[in-house]
Amino acid sequence: MEETEKVLDLSSFQLHNLNSVELPTDLIELDLTANRLTELDPRIGQLSSLKKFSLRQNLIEDAAVKPLSQWEALSDLEELVLRDNKLMTIPDASIFKRLLIFDVSFNEISSLNGLSKVSTTLKELYVSKNEVTKMEEINHLVELQILELGSNRLRVMENLENFAKLQELWLGRNRIKQVNLCGLKCIKKISLQSNRLTSMLGFQECIALEELYLSHNGISKMEGLSTLVNLRVLDVSTNKLKSIEDIQSLTGLEDLWLNDNQIESLVDMAEVVSGSREKLTTIYLGNNPCAKSPNYFITLREIFPHIQQIDSEIVA
């Protein structure tokens, strides 16, 4: 078999079981996305060459995935996707000694209990859109590069100290009140949109940060940004900001989202954004008092010579 033939894509077949399907024993990838499966075919447990296995968007419950923990032939599996099913707990993934990607997003999981059994090789963990209340049992995942815990019930950022290789942290749509990044210095993308933040302080040490998303919070002051010299995207829209501050040193800034705040004037704008005047291509300032000034668009075009988009308007 050629490499391309070792992939079996059965996505969107509306299968209730795999009785009519032949499963070649040397499969490397098996995609069962968007079917009606409620249990796992025992033949899958014999696929010793399998590297990627997706059961995304099925009807799998906790009892149905229990056999996974006994399927030693699958111990070399690198990617396991159980997204969008009916799981209520983290499945036992201890058998997978080389797991790189683990996705249990869009389920009904209330706790991260069970993650302590996941291999330390893991690089990407997705647990978004569940009912998780606490960041726990993740300390040992020292190789982690992407952590997605958005749309849960988290109140505190914790247990991130060991993530020296973390590149992306997605925590939007939670109940977090305070930033605590536990000294992460290599991280490049952070999302804390739609939380309960009232302060921006806490990102100062994240000097590698390139994208920061903080929209839909209760932030009243721009601060703690001057050290983030690698920042390209800053989104602080839909907050309680009255002025633009602390971004003079951000010479790489390309996208700046400030819409839906309480920013009064553009008078000092040129000085405030002096570092990013040449680089900035997109700015959103709509739904601020300053956006009602008669020379709003003209002023912004004068300040930013390379601007391509002002609010929803493409600049010719």
TrEMBL record:
<protein>
    <recommendedName>
        <fullName>Protein phosphatase 1 regulatory subunit pprA</fullName>
    </recommendedName>
</protein>
<dbReference type="InterPro" id="IPR003591">
    <property type="entry name" value="Leu-rich_rpt_typical-subtyp"/>
</dbReference>
<dbReference type="InterPro" id="IPR001611">
    <property type="entry name" value="Leu-rich_rpt"/>
</dbReference>
<dbReference type="InterPro" id="IPR032675">
    <property type="entry name" value="LRR_dom_sf"/>
</dbReference>
<dbReference type="Pfam" id="PF12799">
    <property type="entry name" value="LRR_4"/>
</dbReference>
<dbReference type="InterPro" id="IPR025875">
    <property type="entry name" value="Leu-rich_rpt_4"/>
</dbReference>
<keyword id="KW-0677">Repeat</keyword>
<keyword id="KW-0433">Leucine-rich repeat</keyword>
